[in-house]
Amino acid sequence: MEWTMLCYDGTEYTLPTPVAWRLNYGLGTPCDSVWVKTLWSAGQESRLADGTRLRVTEKGETLFFGVIDECETQWSPAGCVAEITGRGLQALLLDNQAEAADYGQATLAEILRRYVTPYGVGLEKAVSLPAVQGFSVASGSSCWKVLYTFARYYAGVTPRFTRAGKLALHPWEDKTPAALDETAPVTRVVRRDQRYGVLSQVTVKDVTGWTRQTEFNEDFRRRGGQCSRVILLPKDTGFQARRYQAKFQLDRSAAERLVIEVTVALPFAAWPGDLVRLTRTGWSGNGTYRVRESRVCLGELGHETTLVLGDPQGVL
Predict the structure, then answer these.
(1) Which domains are present in the chain?
(2) What sections of 88-155 are H helices per DSSP?
(3) 103 vs 244, higher pLDDT
(4) For 117-245, where are the E strands, in sequence order?
(5) Rounded Cα distance, 310 and 305, in Å
(6) pTM
(7) Contact 170, 127 (CB under 8 A)
């Protein structure tokens, strides 16, 4: 693997071979991130301060491209090391706020022009998403939130970034699920049932408070769940739109309830969005899941990948 730091003045610097590293990939939430620790030469601390981007490649394939958030050099009697942390290019959309705006009709081209392209982010491939009537941007919203609302809420497509830093807005391209069976070098499997953050009911009402619509997560309520939200919408929002908004919030929170984590003693065992089939003897959680996060690292025990799995039909 080759780790290259890109500087603000256009120069590039190849980092020494790392002694440890960690690459985290997600589907928008959380944002892709990187941490790398490498040997360093005392007296060259200022060179790190010039870096703005980090690119990781292997055999011509880009494994990560993103912004550098922090650089640190450490000196001790054992020698000098440098650590770099960063995030994928989604960070540029998360870190920049949008001004309040109301669109009679919002198109994908307009959303990209105002909230994506100015930050140097390009599309992986051309897509066509329907225009949205009466689209509003709340003051203080991040550019990422604007994009997510437009693509996921209205078009049903989960926006995410490729490893090369391109924005993907096309539907899942599901292939044959990767097998995590008895032949795979699985070292750890965790099932986590999360109640915190799962909504039992959502009430959507207009700003006057006279018109409201409430939807329930009956299964979670039956299991004792009590967590509600109230969402304000413009007064001219129709019944079906209010119901869809409430159901969308319920389904999105429900996707967080069951999480499976599988650790494999291999690098890059699967990527976010991939389907995997978990088959372990004596394990009650066998089935097909979608990879929501992939955490790859090199440490004292060698390479390993931890896959965070969820419902393949869940709202992400």
Answers:
(1) 2-88 (2.30.300.10), 93-168 (3.55.50.10), 178-194+257-310 (2.40.30.150), 201-254 (no CATH)
(2) 90-94, 108-115, 143-148, 155
(3) 103
(4) 132-137, 160-161, 167-168, 178-180, 186-193, 201-206, 212-216, 228-233
(5) 16
(6) 0.89
(7) yes
